[in-house]
């Protein structure tokens, strides 16, 4: 679940690990973006989206949204667990800092500088020098597959990113869909002799944790016969056109037959 198509990265990661898993993608185009909403509003929207997914009786729910994980995870767990394990998304600050060197965290303006992110830095950055980089407009540009707006937002964030960073944490699930654009922008003007910047998303770790929570191991060679159900504000639908512009969306649609409406 997510406000929009940021969930594609985690869904594709699950699909690569388990081609035989049935996937339910539940998002909220009627209510997005969630970032400017109050915490109570985010929680209400997230509960609605989660319950729409839960009606399909999944084995686990991935909250593939940093905003919802910050504000709504306790409410989602109180409402759905223990019957439905809920897996949240946390920026990959710890593995980014473990690599040594300077770290930048790209996040939405609302998350940048927030007490939540500052706590994560204090707890997991292990003394690394961390620069928080706000990325206004980037999630929306990714959501609508607006290439020009993506390029502008990425360039603006790259200009705020120190040239000697060793790692960039992608602190919004939407950003993982344009990781290569981010990598290229950060590489421009980088001093010679430094190793390439390493990007750290959350999709792979979240997918692996979801499988652990349901007691299932990776089986990437399994038959690619898992179904795909798409819920847009609770309505069964197809993947939005914007989703198909990203490799993750094309992977999900190519590998999975769309599950018919129930």
Automatic annotation (TrEMBL):
SUPFAM superfamilies: Aspartate/glutamate racemase. Coiled coil: none annotated. InterPro entries: Asp/Glu/hydantoin_racemase (IPR015942), Asp/Glu_race (IPR001920), Asp/Glu_racemase_AS_1 (IPR018187). It comes from the Bacteria. One of its GO terms (biological process) is peptidoglycan biosynthetic process. Keywords: Isomerase. It holds the Pfam family Asp_Glu_race. GO terms for molecular function: glutamate racemase activity. Gene3D superfamilies: 3.40.50.1860. This is Glutamate racemase. The lineage of its organism: Bacteria, Bacillati, Actinomycetota, Actinomycetes, Kitasatosporales.
């Amino acid at each position: 679940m997510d406000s929009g198509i940021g969930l594609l990265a985690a869904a594709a990661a699950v699909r690569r690990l388990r081609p035989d898993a049935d996937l339910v993608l539940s998002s909220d185009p009627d209510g997005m973006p969630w970032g400017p909403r109050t915490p109570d509003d985010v929680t209400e929207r997230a509960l609605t989206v989660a319950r729409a997914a839960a009606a399909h009786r999944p084995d686990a729910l991935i909250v593939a949204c940093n905003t919802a994980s910050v504000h709504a995870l306790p409410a989602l767990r109180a409402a759905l667990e223990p019957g439905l394990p809920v897996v949240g998304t946390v920026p990959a600050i710890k593995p980014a800092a473990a690599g040594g060197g300077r770290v930048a965290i790209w996040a939405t303006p609302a998350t940048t500088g927030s007490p939540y992110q500052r706590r994560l830095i204090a707890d997991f950055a292990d003394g690394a020098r961390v620069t928080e980089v706000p990325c206004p407009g980037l999630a929306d540009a990714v959501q609508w597959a607006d290439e020009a707006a993506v390029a502008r937002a990425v360039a603006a964030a790259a200009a705020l990113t120190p040239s000697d960073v060793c790692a960039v944490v992608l602190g919004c699930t939407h950003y993982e869909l344009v990781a290569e654009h981010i990598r290229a922008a950060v590489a421009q003007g980088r001093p010679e002799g430094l190793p390439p910047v390493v990007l750290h998303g959350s999709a792979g770790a979240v997918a692996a944790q979801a499988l652990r929570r349901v007691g299932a191991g990776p089986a990437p060679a399994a038959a690619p016969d898992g179904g795909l159900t798409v819920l847009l504000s609770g309505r069964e639908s197809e993947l939005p056109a914007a989703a198909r512009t990203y490799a993750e969306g094309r992977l999900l649609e190519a590998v999975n037959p769309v599950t018919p409406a129930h």
